[in-house]
Amino acid sequence: MASTKKSPTPKNPTTPSAASRVQASQAKAGNETGKGSFPARVQAAAATNVNKVDEPVSKGGRKSPSKGTRK
After folding, report:
1. Nearest 5 degrees, angle CA 23-CA 16-CA 24?
2. Is the entire prediction scored with pTM above 0.70?
3. Of these four, 10, 33, 44, 53, which has the most CB atoms within 10 Å of its CB?
4. How far apart are the C-alpha atoms of 49 and 46, rounded to whole Å?
């Protein structure tokens, strides 16, 4: 049976400003900053952290369409 272990939530999640500092320092040093590079991975992690919601996900059906919408 495969493990369904979740990765732990970091105590200090990466912020967009931290990702920006990493990218800038790597660019100044002449290092790669493109897709798959360390700065790119840091930026992706920061975006994920910003988009995470601390509230539990709603367990409901579809949202009903607002009034006045056309089909």
Report:
1. 15
2. no
3. 33
4. 5
